[in-house]
Design a protein that fits this description.
The complex is a heterodimer of chains A (382) and B (751). Chain A is built from 17 helices and no strands. Chain A is mainly α and 382 residues long. Chain A folds into two domains: 93 residues, Fumarate Reductase Iron-sulfur Protein, Chain B, domain 2 (Orthogonal Bundle); 275 residues, no CATH class. The longest helix of chain A has 31 residues. In chain A, 40% of the residues are buried. About 4% of the residues of chain A have low confidence. By secondary structure, chain B is an alpha/beta fold. Among the domains of chain B are: 131 residues, Rossmann fold; 217 residues, FAD/NAD(P)-binding domain (3-Layer(bba) Sandwich); 152 residues, FAD/NAD(P)-binding domain (3-Layer(bba) Sandwich). In chain B, the strands form ten sheets. A five-stranded parallel beta sheet of chain B has the order 7-6-5-11-24, with helices on one face. A five-stranded parallel beta sheet of chain B has the order 13-22-16-17-18. In chain B, helix 5 links the parallel strand 5 and strand 6. Classes of the chains: A mainly alpha (382), B alpha/beta (751). The interface between A and B is medium-sized, with 23 and 21 residues.
Chain lengths: 382, 751
Amino acid sequence: MELDPNFSRKLISLGGKSLKKCYQCATCSVICPISPDDNPFPRKEMIWAQWGVKDRLLKDVDAWLCHHCNDCSEYCPRGAKPGEVLAAIRAAQVQTYSWPSFIPKIMAHPASFILFLAIPAILIYAVLKYAQANLGWGYIPEGEIVMSNFIPHIYVELAGFVVGGFVGLVALISAYRFWNAITEGGAKVFDIEAIDDMEMEIKARKSFWQAVLSALWDIITHNRFKDCGTSNYRYFAHLMMFYGFILLGISTLGAVVYLQMGMELALPPTDPVKVIGNLGFVALFAGTTWVIFKRFSDPERLGLGSYFDWFFVILLYLVAISGIAIELARLAESTTAYYIYLIHLIFVFSLLTYAPYSKFAHLLYRAIAYVYSESTGRKVEK
Amino acid sequence: MTEEEKVEKKLGVYICTGCDIDLLDIERLKKSVQDEFNVEAKTHPHLCGEEGVKIIKDDVANGVNTVVVAACSPRVNTDVFNFENCIVERANLREGVVWCQEINDETKEEVQLMAEDYVKMAIVKAQKSDLPEPYIEETSKDILVVGGGITGITAALEIAKAGYNAYLVEKEEKLGGWMAKYYKSLPSKPPYIEIEDPIVFKKIEEVENNDKIKVYTSTTIEEISGQPGMFDVKVNRNGNVEEFRVGAIVVATGWKPYEAEKLEELGYGKYEGVITNIEMEELAKNGKIVVNGKEVKSVAFIQCAGQRDENHLPYCSSVCCLVTLKQAKYVRMLNDAYAYIFYKDMRTLGLWEDFYKSAQEDEGIFLTKGDVKSIYEEDGKLVVEVENTLLGEPITVKVDLVVLATGMVSTIKGLYTVKEEFPDEKAVPYKHIVDLHPIKSEEEVEELAKKGHILNLQYRQGPELPTLRYGFPDSHYICFPYESRRLGIYAAGCVRAPMDAVACMDDAAGAALKAIQAVELVAQGMTTFPRTGDIDYPQFFLQRCTQCKRCTEECPFGALDEDEKGTPMPNPLRCRRCGICFGACPERIISFKQYSIDSATSMIKAIYVPPEEEEVPRIIIFACENDAYPALDMVAMNRMTYSPHVRVIPVRCLGSVNAVFIADAMSRGIDGVLMMGCKFGEDYQCHFIRGSELANRRMENIKETLDRLMIEAERVKIIEVEITDFDKLPKIINDFVEEIKELGFNPFKGF
């Protein structure tokens, strides 16, 4: 077992500030409603984090079974906040398995936030300048507010494909690396010898596809999230954000369909696609606002969150706000809608492009962890 | 005082009728006193009140000098019923009768007889008692402190601050002890986080500037003789013998480290990089921790090295965890290196938890529980393999230095202490002695004596403080940590239990106060705990002594020396007045003024034994005053009830019950005797250490006597009672009464 004291420091910088305080009483593992009986988390992760057992921590799928409900941190007699330590471990895994590795390294520094927003801004500026000079669009149009008069949708779609392709590639690489790491050593989650003569129970495993279906069901229903005690609001808030995001996705798909049908997209609020989109906004905005409000109202108990965490939350919030602002400006027939549209594009670009490096990637890692835990029996069955 | 000089006793009997005592037939009670003793008992409904006490005081003013108060338990209102120059006896009618008896038509008669018996017993006891006179000698109030470490220094300073003179004896050249050898010490003040320069140097300066403290360095004790208040100390200072007299002694000789040479399995002596925590202090004193000329970059600390281990020290030294955390801080401070700590359990008691937390939060200190599997050298590094770690799997660390947390051993351990710990092979050892060292020959004792000594007490029972478990001279007095089993000698600091320096200083202050209390009390002829203030002491009618040596051997406090012939030579100021000697004496030549064979047997004889045709048994309970008797009072206070056929006689200790008490009871026709004493053995609760054990041993002889008298041995029974067992007592008593009823009546009844 390799010990790397620097990895311990890294976890501290990623938000596990109190990890040294743990004295291994295992209250956390006992209180956790979703920790399995064999090798329960987060006790073992706490001492691995203290000793900097990098290889174990990076292969630790259990970190993803945690939903950061903070029951452990609430009951921890030493204030070691295991919930935050597990979040830091997840962040470390996202940074480790994404590609290329220099991006997460730069992203780890809060000061780089500006840089990461500047990249899409410069790109869009360059594209606009080029279009104005050569393609004849990109000027603020007069009259009725119609976005495609400013930038034809085909170019936005094109950009979407490029970003989507890149994100998909990185996600695949990350998923492959992560899957390899956690399955190393075969079927068992841990290749650790059991302490003393404690026997390991071997549970019947589901087939891969059964596991996928089961995991999907858990994701759709937020089944596992539901058991959270201390931060049970997060179950509802996350559910709202999750379905808000899905509704917005459906509405985007609808827009693409309309485009294929040759329809104009300056839709009235009564259009079904717009209704879905607006509902999505309301859910996403309310959920995100709730999360942010809660964090600030009781940071001691619920955790203020690390920079890694905020990077995602802020972008998501900005996307939602700028999106609705466009619609409002458009309905008010103000040309500021075009400027807001540009800003919105920057945020959307950032949210999606950086997804594999930010907390957004949790949907990938957690889904994989769900599948894996289903197939290895590390899911706590009720 | 000769018989002629004895003041004639004038008896006054006072019956309180309050607190339900009037449920009894008071007139009949008065009449029984009148008939038997020709005294008219006075009654008052509130005897402990001003008016009630005035009745007694007026009588005392008119010549009454023997007062019997028939009211509440003798354990309460002792300050109220206290009359100068008067013998005061109490008959326990409240807790002893009305509160613990069910009074109805059926039981009324027996309960009344019970009350009458208690009043009669109190009267005969008062008649058989004399006013005690204290043993007054010219005593010294100076105090000797043995050992010049942090404990001894603090004790001497505390003694001086309280206005007494202290002699501080240290065998080494300089004061300071272990603490003066440390690089830094544990924090001595809140918030108990920052390590600090050893506080002992400041204290040494204080000692040197205090003219009430006389310091003897390079000095050993040749011998100490005498008794509290009159200890004659002979010291040897660099070859010059000096003598002085002190009143009490504080033993603060501290500890010695466990021999690391025995820890070869941990690589000590094998690898240069494996050292003890003591040696680590020396390394740290250089300002940088350097081994083999190389600056140390990583250190592994192994806790409980040779501790909590049956092959080495079976106990926890309680401070090594703290010492290691302190030294881990050295490693971080001096070398900016990593410290790995492997423990069995991290033990940081009380506020030391904060110190643990402060070390734990250091990013360069790594802690886990674990068992060290092996230590070996590889590529110039020491490899430590640890199993059963909290990390869930064995781990291996490569370090430059391994520090073993070895434990503390009392300086008394290994010395020849008292005979009972080194008994003859044939002797039956006492059950409270855990570390027994049977002795085969006289030469062996001489060999042992050569190992050195600390106090070299000229006591018949042995030269040092008796020890309990693991060689610590602990008292086992639950509430009195500094007490030893030698009156006037108090142990403090690591000599009596492993502890940190802060605790040592507290201990020193406590022991110093106990020593001061002792010199003040013995100056007035009084004893100390647990009969603090008692002036009555045992008197020996030596003309009839047969030199059987039972008293000199059985005294738990070594109070009795003996001459060549084996005649006891009492040292009253060493005595704790338990009466174990008079319980032992087959010739019945030992007595106190207020507690004697005569008074006890007279009490037994005062009990009315109903003739067989009345079909009620009589049973005597000898109840130890320390636990059993208060427990019986608690039974009454909780209004639990027990059989009215029993008569309780309080005794100072079950060890003071002489076989003759039982023989007398049996020959009087008493049907059974129940003896309630404290728990004995390894975890004894006897306030006089072995009183209840001795009572059990003597039972063998008693059974023989009973056999001779053709009486069933089952009629006499000893039970162990803790004060918390009070709720079980009614059942125990009633069951015994039933057992006796089944046996039938004592065949001697009516003779």
